[in-house]
TrEMBL record:
Organism taxonomic ancestry: Bacteria, Bacillati, Actinomycetota, Actinomycetes, Streptosporangiales
Descriptive protein name: Transglycosylase SLT domain-containing protein
Keywords of this entry: Signal
Source domain of life: Bacteria
Residues covered by the PLL-like beta propeller domain: 170-484
């Protein structure tokens, strides 16, 4: 990584279309003259309500989805926009799915009402993140809310449905997650405690680093409460503390004691929204969980498992949390026997190693990567359970992280003392290509996604914290300081 100091300027991946275009589409719809409109629906909004419901939007989320579609396309499945798009590209169909940022959505899909709705449901994380739509960001959907609500009422399916799955964030000495308003927040654990920086707006530039105190040289984990407040956990050999947002996207509490010291931690949310925390130490792995969503905590409970292990957590497609723990000699796996339920015994998952990362395919199958002195190895769920371990190459004894591209492809990032490298799936749910150079060496790496779907990677070194972000579907910025300062050094 370089020490180039720049203050990156984010460009929204969608731009408002001309008001005249939207007005013209609305008038054509009112006159019944738009090609592709569905005559079986009493109003254009009824089509959006029906396909939105079929895609999985529910309750108030369905109303918002219909309002966004009305602002985007006037609920015309054949609508196309190219005006002022950077890079040159087309917004297509009901929810105006962009062909540059989402090339996995074919034209045949984008101009099919139901397929477009399915894509909008996936891109919006089940209706929880509308930041990729400029009409939502500028509030243009608000004037359509009454029309959208009436369409949902006519449909008769406006009750609440199952909440979309919330997947755990990567844990480590640097962690990042999005606040409820879409802004990324990043935390880094230096020798003098934890440091914090945040985006000034969703997809935007960054604040200066702020020192928070707390445990020095800690391992960190971060997760969202059911009410939208982020909660941060920090552990070192002597201390275990946590702090939390006082309101969604709001100010933070001070540090509070959460337990005794240990090696590593991971946090994830149950299907019902209750957070679960796992921590490793000299006698194995312990866990603690919220008694109710966004509420108080249980006592610590021993689970067995590998002593002084690195821990990561993921979520299966059915909502069950799964925990993976690795030390120098042993790799083991623990999982819930039912969503929100009890836990299995620890199972052997492989031999020991240095670090691990876990992610999920777009079809929900889990992918596990682990590093050791011979490089990076890979194991994944298949029809019969789990594959065998497969060698991928990559840096020896690397720190690992993973994240998903806007189209759902898993991307892996690895760093050791001499090199940073990058590996990604060649297609959705597909095999991986070859490792490519991603920078020079460092001490820690983590990845998160912006509100618009672009991956942002944070790399730590003895000099401070850098970041690098997608500038396009397959292109990246250079490494740069977060804001214009180095932040904490991580040895």
């Amino acid at each position: 990584m370089t020490g180039q100091q720049v203050n990156p300027v984010r460009r929204s991946r969608r731009t408002p279309r001309r008001a005249a275009l939207a007005a013209m589409v609305s008038l054509l719809l009112a006159a019944g003259g738009v090609v592709g409109a569905a005559p079986a629906h009493a109003a254009a909004s009824d089509l959006c309500a029906q396909v939105g419901y079929n895609a999985g939007f529910r309750g108030g989320g369905l109303v918002t989805a219909v309002a966004v579609a009305l602002a985007e396309s006037s609920c015309d499945p054949s609508a196309t926009n190219t005006y002022n798009n950077t890079p040159p590209s087309r917004d297509r169909g009901l929810w105006q799915i962009n062909d540059y940022w989402h090339p996995d959505v074919s034209d045949a899909c984008a101009y099919d009402a139901q397929c477009n709705a399915n894509a909008a449901f996936r891109i919006s994380s089940g209706g929880t993140n509308w930041q990729p739509w400029t009409t939502y960001n500028i509030g243009a959907h608000q004037r359509h809310m009454d029309t959208a609500r009436a369409a949902v009422d006519r449909l008769g399916h406006n009750g609440p449905g199952p909440a979309p799955l919330v997947y755990p964030a990567e844990s480590g000495r640097v962690v990042s997650a999005r606040s409820a308003d879409g802004r990324l927040e990043v935390f880094a654990a230096g020798a003098n405690g934890v440091h914090h920086a945040w985006q000034n707006k969703a997809n935007g530039t960054w604040s200066a680093w702020q020192s928070l105190g707390g445990p020095g040289n800690a391992e960190l984990a971060i997760g969202p409460n059911a009410d939208g407040r982020l909660e941060l956990f920090a552990i070192n050999g002597d201390t275990f503390q946590h702090r939390y947002q006082n309101s969604p996207s709001g100010t933070w509490s001070g540090w509070e004691t959460f337990g005794e010291g240990g090696k590593d931690i991971a946090v994830g949310s149950n299907k019902d929204g209750r957070l679960e925390v796992f921590a490793s130490g000299p006698v194995g792995v312990f866990h603690k969980y919220q008694n109710a969503p966004s509420s108080g905590w249980s006592n610590w409970e021993p689970t067995g498992g590998p002593a002084n292990s690195r821990i990561e957590m993921e979520k299966s497609l059915d909502g069950r949390l799964e925990v993976f723990a690795l030390n120098g000699n042993v790799f083991q796996h623990l999982y819930q026997t039912a969503a929100n339920g009890s836990w299995s015994a620890w199972n052997a998952f492989g031999t020991g190693g240095h670090d691990l990362t876990v992610d999920h395919n777009r079809d929900g199958r889990l992918e596990v990567f682990a590093s050791n002195p011979n490089g990076v190895f890979h194991k994944y769920q298949n029809a019969s359970g789990w594959s065998e371990w497969e060698a991928t190459g990559g840096p020896a004894n690397a720190q690992l992280t993973s994240e998903r591209s806007p189209d759902g492809r898993v991307e892996i990032f690895a760093i050791n003392d001499t090199v940073a490298q990058h590996l990604w799936q060649t297609g959705v749910n597909a095999p991986y290509g070859q490792w490519t150079t991603f920078g020079t060496g460092g001490t820690e790496i983590t990845a998160a996604t912006n509100a618009d779907g672009r991956i942002e990677v944070f790399g730590a070194s003895h000099a401070g914290i850098y970041h690098k972000w997608q500038t396009g579907f397959t292109t990246w910025s250079d490494w740069a300081w977060v804001n214009t300062t180095s932040g904490p050094a991580l040895d």
